[in-house]
Design brief:
The complex is a heterodimer of chains A (about 270) and B (about 230). With about 270 residues, chain A is of the alpha/beta class. Chain A is built from 9 helices and 12 strands. Chain A is globular, with a radius of gyration of 19 Å. Chain B has about 230 residues and is mostly helical. The termini of chain B are far apart. Chain B has 9 helices and no strands. At the A-B interface, strand 8 and helix 3 of A face helix 5, helix 6 and helix 9 of B. The complex binds adenosine-5'-triphosphate (ATP) and magnesium ion (MG). The site of adenosine-5'-triphosphate has 11 residues of chain A, from strand 2 and helix 1.
């Protein structure tokens, strides 16, 4: 790979996340096409765009659920998808990926809570099993987090006994329990009934207000994206077609496609 | 009726001896089948060809050929290659290897039917492959595979009857022997039939159902229906 484009380590002051010429295809279909995308430390970025434009794919690659075909993803100045070996960038091995992945957490559209564990056990699982935290400490911290998301009276319930909104709040607490520096949200309210969306957005709003977490959020909730984002990126066909502050993007979109998309979703919503 | 009681009085102890051997064969072959199922089932899920292909070959071979032929191979043919087993050992090895191939498919299928999101959530939490399997995927897969395992263990019990053909003195063997000396075939094979049936329905089925219930409860499924 071309050295100047893909250094082994980014200079200091590098963004928290950098996609450098990232390409991803499924067979014939190119989902991401030489994507360049930076996110600064503690920045809150919303990703919007039509279905199939590659929004989920971006998050999944950053979470290392998916491999990239070309390019490099950097996290906190270090390569994520690759690693330095004898002064060269090579594909990261599992051990290296695990060491980098600890900086990133993800909240899924369908929660993906562990059904055989209570809310508290869901939150404790990874801190105990991965970080080696004592059960006592993990339990105390998890209880605190569940309290923060407003579920102190549900800590001993299994997911099946919780509403969708409650499950998603447990999922947020579970991700936070690993103390990620970057938190990814993939349409976390789109599987929810309208009346419980607010409680989940409330939790995210609270996290945003603390502003000590880098957040990347794929969402169809334009009002919410405008309210909490530092920056909004409009994805189209695997590329960032337009990006900017919420005011700029929502009130004065320059790109024709952005305008079309926004008028379509605003009409529908 | 009178005469059947007399028959039992006379031959009951041999039926009992045979039943004990059948129970031993079932338990040992069952444990072997379970161990093989886990190993081969997981191997078949591997992304590495060198691990996956032997598992596929194993399953194909043992499911695609007859248990009786496998038993004869292990008992009569392997000695020609210098591998000799006692008949009791050859019996449970054949049954265990054969049913293990079926069990491996159960293990593989149930693991694959755990929703992918579970695997992804565990990965996102940075759990190691071993912990993901042990703590997240397998406990859920077990819940799915227990009911078919109940059936498979009953198949295994019935399959052990074949070991009588290499003269392991199991229930079937004793029934044949008694029949051979008394010519009371209805009594001899009827008694064997009933004992097999009772072991399946009064021991294996309830035991598996109890285990299923225990596991479902441990997994919190109980909470869902409360
Ligand atoms: N595993 C896969 N195999 C094949 N194609 C895939 C796979 N995952 C995603 N795709 C395709 O990649 C494209 C981008 O998918 P992606 O999920 O990133 O879209 P999205 O922007 O999140 O859409 P949506 O708003 O519907 O969630 C789609 O055309 C999708 O069909
Ligand atoms: Mg998506």
């Amino acid at each position: 790979m071309n050295e100047p484009d893909f250094p082994i380590k980014l200079e200091s002051g590098a963004p928290m996340v950098r996609f450098a010429k990232v390409r991803k295809s499924y067979g014939e279909l190119t989902v991401l096409d030489d994507l360049d995308f930076d996110v600064q430390k503690n920045e809150i970025v919303s990703i919007i765009g039509p279905s199939g434009s590659g929004k989920t794919t971006v998050l999944r690659m950053l979470m290392t659920l998916e491999q990239i075909d070309h390019g490099v993803i950097y996290v906190d100045g270090e390569p994520l998808t690759h690693m330095g070996k004898n002064g060269k960038l090579v594909r990261a091995n599992n051990r290296y990926v695990r060491s980098m992945r600890s900086k990133i957490g993800m909240v899924f559209q369908h929660f993906n809570l562990f059904p055989h564990m209570t809310a508290l056990q869901n939150c404790m699982e990874a801190p105990v099993q991965v970080l080696g935290m004592s059960k006592q400490e993990a339990s105390d911290r998890s209880e605190e987090l569940l309290q923060m998301v407003g579920l102190e009276d549900k800590i001993h319930q299994h997911p099946a006994r919780l509403s969708g909104g409650q499950q998603q709040r447990v999922a947020i607490a579970r991700a936070l329990a690993m103390r990620p520096e970057i938190l990814l949200f993939d349409e976390v309210t789109s599987a929810l009934d309208p009346e419980v969306i607010g409680e989940v957005l409330g939790v995210i709003r609270q996290l945003a207000a603390e502003h000590n977490l880098t957040m990347i959020m794929v969402t169809h909730q334009m009002g919410f994206a405008r309210e909490i984002s530092d920056r909004v990126c409009f994805f189209y066909d695997g590329k960032i077609e337009e990006q900017g502050s919420p005011t700029k993007l929502f009130d004065n979109p320059e790109n024709e496609r952005t305008r079309q998309f926004l008028s379509a979703v605003l009409d529908a919503g | 009726m009178q005469s059947y009681l007399e028959y039992l009085d006379q031959h009951g102890s041999r039926f009992l001896d045979g039943t004990l051997i059948t129970i031993q064969q079932t338990i040992i072959a069952g444990l072997l089948a379970i161990a093989i199922s886990l190993v081969v089932g997981l191997m078949k899920l591997s992304s590495h060809k060198v691990i996956r292909w032997p598992a596929i070959g194993y399953i194909e071979f043992f499911r695609g050929t007859s248990l009786l032929v496998q038993l004869y191979w292990i008992f009569f043919v392997l000695p020609l290659f210098g591998i000799t087993f006692e008949k009791f050992t050859a019996g449970f090895i054949a049954v265990g290897l054969n049913l293990g191939a079926y069990g491996a498919e159960l293990v593989r299928g149930s693991i694959q039917s755990v929703p992918r999101g579970q695997y992804e959530a565990a990965l996102a939490l940075n759990m190691s492959p071993y912990k993901r399997m042990k703590r997240i995927i397998f406990p859920q897969a077990l819940l799915i595979m227990l009911p078919p395992w109940g059936n498979l263990l009953i198949e295994l019990l019935k399959g052990t009857a074949l070991v009588s053909l290499i003269a392991v003195a199991d229930l079937m063997f004793e029934a044949k022997q008694i029949n051979g000396s008394t010519f009371l075939s209805a009594e001899s094979f009827g008694t064997a039939l009933i004992i097999y049936y009772l072991m399946a329905r009064l021991v294996i089925s309830p035991a598996m159902r109890a285990f299923e219930k225990y596991w479902a409860k441990k997994m919190g499924r109980f909470a869902n229906h409360a």
